[in-house]
Design a protein that fits this description.
single chain, about 450 residues
């Protein structure tokens, strides 16, 4: 049996996910995202209680996401120029250290400045981490590896989102600002073990890429399985006729953005993160005056369910195809948002957070895995930029737009409008599913 036949016959799951570089990436991501989530709902509260109101609260998240969106397209260039260690290390410092300034001085312009700096750090960490997680994946387990990486982004939210609100209520804002800086500094040692430059694997797929210039694109060789060349398990895989490999695909940081096969996943992700930006920014404010600790419990539930759903979606996608999860995931996000119309019912709020968390976690993994499958390995960095741009732009627009809306409608109607916008995305989700079936045929 030749080497290619042996690779094809190998069952899914024979390669190890938790290599040393992957473990260190997870540690760095947990530290960085811990610093991100700890203040994600605290800074809007800080701005609102300082006199900024709903508009000021929305601007804190909006400013951070604006800086993130502006920084992300440059990250692949920085990675190529300086390597993963220096770039990810700088991102961690920007995520954490500026928050310590707020423990010394307090002003709304300074708060916005801190949010801008944190946004740049966030853009660096998530773009570099997403691309590296995809490159470090063993053959046939990319969706699962991305799900594992998603857990490292989600676990900090399980503790950080509710803990930040709880600690600021008990101890004040300044200790939370200092704790955020400490968390990111503790993650810095892990950065030293990341690949200095682009990660590679000594696999048949990598060898084929070196021979042909594109991953797995060899004359007369459609081979592969489980997300490699030719695809399997209902996924598209990477083939010489796929959009990301066709001649004439634009290069550059946003070259992947014009790949037509990526349009619908990008739009769907942006809509889901629009709702997430609304939720993490305004749910604690919407529940002020309600049952004690309801906001903390609601954020804890949502943050706990989302990473589990993201990992579960990755496991399912590698075995049965990710596209089958897209419609139910979008529907769950919409229903979870719609349930927040009943803010006076703690049970409804908690059930809504379960639905929202499950749908949002699945949407993240499904869209990311789908986009990576539709480009060659050389395009992973650009896909990471586009995916994270959609994620962060959606969060920023959700926070700012909802802040302007609720001054006129109040929270229940604002959540209802957001749910209607999400239901409108079911059309693109259905269209993308038909696209996948047509390509598979």
């Amino acid at each position: 049996m030749n080497a290619r036949a042996a690779r094809t016959a190998a069952p899914t799951g024979t390669s190890r996910l938790l290599t040393r570089p992957m473990l260190l990436l997870l540690v760095a991501s947990v530290g960085g995202m811990g610093g991100f989530y700890l203040l994600l709902s605290v800074l809007p509260l800080y701005a609102a209680t300082a006199g900024g109101g709903g508009v000021g609260a929305g601007l804190t998240t909006g400013a951070m996401m604006l800086a993130t969106v502006l920084a992300e397209p440059a990250v692949p260039w920085f990675l190529a120029r300086f390597g993963h260690r220096a770039v990810v290390g700088a991102g961690l410092l920007l995520l954490g250290l500026p928050s310590a300034v707020l423990s010394l001085w307090s002003s709304f312009p300074l708060t916005l400045g801190v949010c801008l700096a944190r946004g740049v750090g966030l853009g660096i960490v998530v773009v570099a981490g997403t691309a590296l997680a995809a490159e470090l994946a063993p053959p046939g387990r990319r969706s699962e590896n991305l799900g594992l990486y998603g857990v490292s982004l989600g676990v900090p939210s399980v503790l950080g989102l509710p803990a930040g609100v709880w600690l600021s209520d008990r101890l004040g804002f300044e200790p939370v600002f200092l704790l955020t800086a400490a968390l990111t500094l503790l993650a810095l040692p892990a950065v030293a073990g990341l690949p200095a430059r682009r990660a590679t694997r000594a696999t048949g797929a990598a060898q084929a890429e070196r021979l042909s210039g594109d991953p797995g694109v060899r004359k007369g060789d459609p081979g592969g399985r489980n997300g490699e060349v030719g695809g399997r398990n209902g996924e598209l895989g990477v083939r010489s006729e796929d959009p990301g490999v066709r001649k004439g695909t634009p290069d550059g940081p946003l070259g992947a953005a014009v790949n037509r096969s990526l349009v619908w996943p990008t739009l769907i992700l942006g809509a889901a993160t629009f709702a997430s930006g609304v939720l993490v920014t305004f749910l604690p404010l919407a529940l002020l005056g309600g049952p004690s600790h309801l906001a903390v419990v609601a954020l804890l539930v949502q943050a706990s369910v989302a990473p589990l759903a993201r990992w579960g979606a990755g496991w399912w996608g590698d075995r049965h195809g990710s596209s089958s999860l897209l419609l139910p995931a979008v529907l769950a996000v919409a229903l979870g948002t719609a349930g927040l119309v009943r803010l006076e019912s703690p049970v409804t709020v908690i059930v809504s957070m379960v639905l929202f968390g499950a749908g949002f976690g699945a949407v993240q993994n499904v869209t990311l895995a789908t986009m990576f499958e539709r480009v060659p390995r050389s395009g992973f960095g650009r896909v990471s930029v586009v995916w994270n741009l959609a994620f962060d732009a959606g969060m920023g627009l959700g926070a700012v737009g909802f802040g302007l809306l609720i001054d006129r409608t109040g929270y229940p109607w604002g959540f209802a409008v957001t749910a209607v916008l999400l239901l409108a995305v079911l059309g693109p989700a259905w269209h993308d599913r038909r696209y996948v079936r047509a390509e598979a045929a």
